[in-house]
């Protein structure tokens, strides 16, 4: 029997969205390298602010290009975009608190649990059940994440608060995914949604950076060329590129699957740490990366079978 003519466009659209998801993961995965170069000059909270603030001109230009030509008037600050912006501010805030109060390995390990909270929130709040393929793929990704990061994990009662901040990071990242998915589902373009939520995130993080840096006696403005270059690169590559491509993907792929990008981000981060910072990868970490890639492949959305034509 011939397949439905509507099947091919759906598959090709999902393939393009998956490519955007992978490219976004690589772009976000290099952000720890930029943070390493910038945080010594401006501190972690100010670097998080500059990450989003410096990306605003790029995102605005992208939005103008995306919306060029006649069309209906669009609202920037929809409730879903506002929610996503607040959630992303919470994600970056607790991520940096976690880094300051526990080991980087612990902070990263707990942050990678975000897809679990996406699945739970989708089920408990949105009444959407994840498929068996998605749950199996998520399990493989979690196992791969443990292998990739877990060997550096440290159990220390003195770091419990920092570990809890890591869990909060995962919760807010999960809420961010669901917020962007909702904003895109309501017809918001990827550029407009990313620009609007970034504006909200920047406003929140500016207040946080000012309070934190004044309290610590540090400035918010970067001074060294190395820090400025790192912040600009993080804004253009990791935020405008990474989060923008993620918004593109969430227009076609479900949040439960797209949230697995955090595991791809962990692979990219480990790879960049090896290439740029000389941080060696062990065979166990390589096995973990392979498990993550297989888990994402297994969890991929399957096109619905087309009805047979008479």
TrEMBL record:
Keywords on this record?
Answer: Membrane, Transmembrane, Transmembrane helix
Domain of life of the organism encoding this protein: Bacteria
Localization annotation = Membrane
Q: How does it sit in the membrane?
A: Multi-pass membrane protein
The answer to whether keyword Hydrolase applies is no
Chief place where the protein resides: membrane
- Pfam families (alphabetical): EamA
Transmembrane segments annotated in the record for this chain: 48-65, 77-97, 103-126, 135-154, 160-178, 190-215, 227-250, 257-277, 283-299
First and last residue of the signal peptide: none
Q: Where is the EamA domain?
A: 20-145, 162-298
GO terms for cellular component: membrane
Please give the family membership noted in the entry. Answer: Belongs to the EamA transporter family.
This protein's name: DMT family transporter
